[in-house]
Design a protein that fits this description.
Layout lengths: L1 E3 L1 H4 L7 H13 L2 H4 L3 E3 L25 H11 L3 E7 L17 H11 L3 E5 L8 H14 L5 E4 L17 E3 L8 H12 L10 E3 L12 H13 L5 E2 L8 H7 L2 H7 L8 E6 L2 E7 L5 E7 L5 E6 L11 E5 L5 E4 L2 E6 L4 E8 L8 E4 L7 E3 L6 E2 L14 E3 L2 E3 L2 E5 L2 E6 L4 E10 L8 E8 L2 E10 L5 E6 L5 E8 L8 E11 L6 E4 L7 E3 L6 E2 L14 E3 L2 E3 L2 E5 L2 E6 L4 E10 L9 E8 L2 E10 L5 E6 L5 E8 L8 E11 L1
Parallel strand pairs: 1-2, 1-8, 2-3, 3-4, 4-5, 5-6, 6-7
Antiparallel strand pairs: 9-10, 10-11, 11-16, 12-15, 13-14, 13-16, 17-29, 18-23, 19-22, 20-21, 22-29, 23-28, 24-27, 24-29, 25-26, 25-28, 30-42, 31-36, 32-35, 33-34, 35-42, 36-41, 37-40, 37-42, 38-39, 38-41
Helix pairs in contact: 5-6, 7-8, 8-9, 8-10
Amino acid sequence: MGFNNWNSTHCRAEFNETMVKGIADVFVSQGLKNAGYTYVNIDDCWALPNRDANGNLVPDPVRFPNGIKAVADYVHSKGLKFGLYSSAGTKTCDTQGFPGGLGHEQQDANLWASWGVDYLKYDNCNNTGVDARQRYKAMGDALRATGRPIVYSICEWGENQPWNWAAEYGNSWRTTGDISDSWSSMIGIAHQNQALAPYAKPGAWNDPDMLEVGNGGMTDTEYRTHFSLWAQMAAPLLIGSDLRSVSSATLDVLKNTDVIAVDQDTLGRQGTVVSNGGGLVVMSKALADGGRSVTLTNENTTARTVTTTAEAIGLGGTTSYVLKDLWSKQTSTTSGTISASVPAHGTVMYRVTPGTPVPPPTGVSQLGDLAWSSAANGWGPVERNLSNGEQAAGDGHTLTIGGTTYAKGLGTHAPSDITYHLGGACTSLRVDVGVDDESTAGGSVNFQVYRDAVKVADSGVRTNSDPPLRLTADLTGGTTLRLVVTDGGDGITYDHADWADARLACGRGPAAGTHALSDLTWSAASGGWGPVERDSSNGERAAGDGRALTINGTTYAKGLGTHAASDVTYYLGGSCSRLTVNVGVDDEAGGSNGSVVFRILRNDTVVADSGRITGADAAKTLTADLTGGLELRLSVTDSGDGADYDHADWATPQLTCA
């Protein structure tokens, strides 16, 4: 989150040191910093057209008479971060031809690090035909070699499908060409970026370009749609208007903290299109508290009613949902229908929360992804899926105990106490505990797990020199789960305490007997293109657009239709023993098109693997031993030649449970 000057100034004379400092001032005075905006970035035209005698870039002395470091220092003095621009070519994109970074990667990176640069936007102009991956890897390596944390924004315009490779080198990648300040440009870019949701993940984001909010080419309604969709797509939010002169209406859009919270949600999922027809588009985004954000967008020129359901957006298991309109701030309840009258080119955005108190969903959930009832902490907030950095939210790092890193969990600091509502629905907790490696100078704590008022697990004293300890706890019948960390007896200094990979199992598995998987409710389902379909093939777009499941001429009445990459999870609760299924590429792919690999996992263990299957192959029967498994995962991946035509069927899947 931050600012970039290009959309409002391009290379005109008003782009200068005074402007940049003024933007930093406005970040603070107008509350944008408090809303989460951090980076003050400058774009092209900051340098002279030629390097100096030593080959170094030289700031334009007219625009930046005190140099770039002085500007960065000023931005840092406001508690903000500073970003810079270059291009992976011989020159940048402006017609005046400022020096690019191609062939000067380490020299430039070292210079920027010495100036205190925190962010690099690296463009794609004048690249002389050098391979994109080679060019962007070179700068990524150079930035890392400086030892300074610098966010790396790869601005490759989507020309070489950077979503397939850029996460290896950078933190975000442009998926399209440049945005302009018009409805047609903005909504067209949104459409392109929506389709790429499967490629986004924490630390690696699809970037549909900077915000145009406030530049005057769209209405306030259209700007609210712009901001809503960028947040729903977990996109970088880089303000592109001159904040020194924008209207109060523009600031109201940019400072909508409810919408910002969706963009910055710690689960890190990009929203996906649930339905799209007649210019009415519904997107759903999974959130860390177990709820969803939903955008109801009307792309037509007259008002329309847009409708979806809780089930369609991926929720279930309760009779009531709370809807908060993130623009009007009004709240309401629904039993399942989500609907609104939406103005022309408008978007209604809801945060949908299952009625409270609600037990965790049936299945195995990570505590770091669930909403707690209450949380108290010794220093700083309890963190989801990060260590506790003692100060502001989000200031921790990857959870690490004894050198072992964890993607999921809770970062705390003693003394801490966290409560979850179980409602008698859960059976067990499995968690690794220990002092986070962030505590290099000491730290000793005790972890305790309570089912209601009964202690059901105790770690004893753990220090910063101990490896992770696995705790298991029987939660059967419990109304609440409490996670307590106390000091180990030597004071609370350095007591950074992690609950890592905390897996909560809730609910009973399928009833005894043999079941068709398509008749059961999955815990989670994601598909590469379009939704996972029950008893029909995947048609890549809207729900129900497939046809009869057919593999090499044989049709099947029951099964699941997917498209790689896909992942479908069922909760077993330890009650099932066997899965038998026929797998193959659906004939919908056409001829020999499509090649995939099917895998069956019991918990995290692969128990069946199809090997490579193409559209020319007959169905293959897989059998998997699921004895004792809490979860069944059905995974389909591309076999290595790209995801085109990878329509993958799980046909006649028979699950046997006791």
